von Willebrand factor type A domain protein (Kolteria novifilia), 726 residues
Amino acid sequence: MSVYLNPVWPWPLVLLAIAGLLAFSHWTYRRGTPARRLLLTLRWLTIALVGFVLLRPSLVFQTTSEEMSTLLILADKSESMKLRDMVNSQSRWDMMQRMTQESGEAFTALLEKVNIRQFQFDGRLVESILAGEKPDGTQTTIGDAIVEALQRSAGERIAGVIVMTDGANTGGLSPTTVARQLKAQKIPVYAFGFGQETVGENMNNIAATKILASPTVFAKNKMTVRGEFQGSGFVGKPVPVKLLLDGQEVDNSFITYQRNNETVLVDLTAIPKSTDAGDVKVTMQVDPQDGELLTTDNTISTYVTVRSGGIGVLAIEGKYRFWEPKFLRWALDRSPDIELSQLFLLDEAGRDAGAKGELDRLLSSGDYDVYVLGDVSANQFSDDQLRTLRKAVEEGAGLLMMGGYESFGPGGWGATPVSEALPVQINPADVQRKGAVKMEPTAAGLRHFILRLTSNEESNREIWAKLRPLDGSSTWSGEKPLAQLLATSSDGKPLLVAQDYGAGRVLAFAGDTTWRWRRGAEGIAAHRKFWRQLILWLAHKDDATGSFIRVKLDRRRLATGQKLSVDVSIEKADGTPLPSAVAQAVVSIPDGSEVPLELFKKGDAYQATFWKSDQPGDYEVKVRAVDGKEDLGETTVKFLVYDANAEMQQLAADHDLLRSMAEMTDGEFRNPEELPRFLKSLADRDLNQEVAQITQINLWDRWETLLLFFLFLSLEWWIRKRRGLA
């Protein structure tokens, strides 16, 4: 016991105040009659009591007691624990149960020292003893499990965390990050590693891990699908893999693994038919192999939209270049009715890219409605190819020749069959202009479909005036008699000239840097609309009417529980928005029911987020729109939700992770066979902690003190009253 003072003011000041009051009281009652001496005594007692309260004395008692700690035990019940790679071909789970049973006596001894809380975990945490349940979890989240176990044990002193797992973490918080937090709290991790760190002969498995395919493809066009397959136990053995469209095999190949746990890429191709138009389920599949551990992960699927009747565009460049081809693709990618194919005849180093043979096939295929000649010289084509190109234009195809150092006259095009179709006169002496070239539509050009960016002619002129200049342009000797001049430079030089040739349409465009227009939202929109309308005009689609509902998903394949972003736009045939239209959407889910999809207006389009992806299977987004009383119809897009089970894709145990966690927290890493002996040694340790308990009794803040104060004052008043003293 000890006495503790906590004065209201500094204690010298308190003592000085008390002494002053005592002296003043003595001076007041200096005449020493018995009654006054009694009153002085009472006054001194009152002042002393006030001083006692001002000093605020307390009695402090300290006792010690032992606080029982808590030991957390976490057992992994994910699906990977069923792998049979332990002694005598036991599964990891069976080995864990056996070691737990053999530790019964050690558990009993340990329970006398500490509290024990047992948990099982996979993707979630359950407080349960290790009984006869089967490991069936689809995730291993070691970090999440430890954090949640600590939260459930809040207020308890944790002596340590025993983790029994194979260490093959597949999600959640980083276990090493959690280990750092445990180190700061001085909580050790005792990790027991189950399973083999290398894949054994009895762990054969092939898992399809990824599939990549273009979300949209036109009928009769080749589609390449890439798959990733992770395999173990099949080193050196050719494994057949096949590609299916809506369940029908269309291509096949073989994959061969050079080492265990290797991921191999395989590309397979298909050419969808016109009858395939719509959403097609694309599947890459490996048939079950002899001795394979798991066969449910041999197949992977996604959806591709096959379109028929679209505009096929072939853009040919002499050698690889970046800016204009890249932004040409960006401009046309948002047009689902246009498919752009780009061919570079030479690579970045000027070497033959192996595309010349492909060029012959593409030109003779008849699959393209529009041909775009970039910066490419005529001598990169054979005479037959040039005649084939001219004939295609005569029969109705569109042709655009763009400017460049290898284009028009400098590229030798004046002496070719193609020059007959061009709307301009060219010769080898024509040169490439350098510097800024401002493009200005002519009066006819402002009204022409290609250059009409808005319906108002004056607004159209203002938009073109705001666009950045081109960087250089080609020059021509003149225009042909039947050609129509659509745009010139600010000094009157022709930039865009059009004419019909046979059943086809032809454009000569002196520029090749339209990507410079893409500054700001207005510039990006103008660039996109210019190229879309240019292609539509060349393909004789400039008079199309009606409207289209376009639905774009951010992906066609997602894991259970993931969200899906949906963009909906309603456009006229020329690609301009139809802001007066109203859209509604639902999603069909695998159980046959429909879930409303709430669309939010954003500008002239709609956006939505779909969350209810908890069922694996096929889903379908259905969007219907109306414009006033006009029904614009319905558009549907399918996507696939797969069961996100990453457990069986990582067969090897990860003991390095467990060792790292143990070392970081000053814990221990042990083999499963050491569990009984370790628990016995743990019972012999001093896991609990002596806790000091301090009790403080305030002597001044008590009812007795207040009673004495009033008693002294009352007694003084009574004596004064009785004796008639002032």
User: Anything to note?
Assistant: The first helix runs from residue 11 to 28.
